[in-house]
Amino acid sequence: MNSLREVTATRYVTPFREGGSMPGLVEADDLGMYVVKFRGAGQGVKVLVAEIIVGELARRLGFRIPEIVLVHLDPELARAEPDQEVQELLRASGGLNIGFDYLPGSFDFNPVVRDPGEEFATKLLWFDALVLNVDRSWRNPNMLLWHREPWLIDHGAALYFHYSWSEDRPATKEYRWDASDHAMLPNAGSVSEVDAEMAAKITPELLDEVLALIPDEWLEGDPAELRQRYKDFFTYRLAHRGWADELEAARAARV
Fold it and tell me: Could you tell me whether strands 33-37 and 68-73 are parallel, antiparallel, or unpaired per DSSP bridges?
């Protein structure tokens, strides 16, 4: 995939009020249905950037991710909405937004009820630590079960460092990540056995491919410089994997 598919929103169907950013189900001009996260929500476009980077990187590592599309939205769609909160959100979200293929009939995946398998759990634990995903706890795994397989969703809280980027807080530094509450920790096997395999898959070329998918207008600054800063973060974190040893220690402590 060299670019994300683009669609145009034609109808706002319903909000999903469970999330703080109030994503919505939207019909598009390709007759598809998408769960859309809006650029006008309180968290801003960095959530959308994280969704692309983490979602598409996960896809290339073999995890199931609903198709990510770029959704063009005309603020005039707000005229048909009776809910004032939805109206304001749509009016603030003109232009490009992010959408995820709607998985009809899916429901929340609970790893306590359904074992995801040791290999899957271990690799997902490793991946979430890599991308600093703080939003996959046992309380809220952010996974769906669809056609008997787990699908990953909601990665906007990952890469939290980009909210405080500055010259004195460069991407090339150590960032702490707590595994104790992660949904996959009870099911994970040896992190040491998957660490080298997972890290080797994330090549500079793969990072360039994923980072190129981010629309320039979502990068608040010089796009080339900011893509390089994201790449620097991953390059540094992959080269300094003391965090993987911490994961193994956290897992071993539960055994």
Answer: unpaired
What whole-number distance in Å separates Cα of residue 53 and Cα of residue 5?
Answer: 15
Local structure of residue 241 (DSSP, 8 states): -
Tracing tokens 């793969």 back to the chain, one arrives at 206
Alpha helices in the chain (DSSP H): 45-60, 84-91, 118-130, 192-201, 204-211, 223-239, 242-254
pLDDT in tens, 52-95: 999 999 999 999 999 999 999 999 999 988 989 999 999 999 99
Residue 119 pLDDT class (50, 70, 90 cuts):
very high
The alpha carbon of 76 is separated from its chain's Cα centroid by a whole number of angstroms, namely 28
Q: What tens digit of pLDDT does each residue of 8-60 get?
A: 999 999 998 766 678 999 999 999 999 999 999 988 899 999 999 999 999 99
Nearest of 107, 101, 105 to residue 27 by alpha carbon: 101
- Mean pLDDT (the chain, rounded): 93
Distance, in Å, from the CA atom of 15 to the CA atom of 197, rounded to the nearest integer, reads 40
Q: Where are the alpha helices (DSSP H) in 96-222?
A: 118-130, 192-201, 204-211
Calculate the alpha carbon distances from 86 to 31, 51, 65, 110, 216 in Å: 22, 22, 26, 30, 26
Rg value, the chain, Cα: 18
**Amino acid present at 245:** D
Domain spans, the chain:
5-101, 107-150+160-254
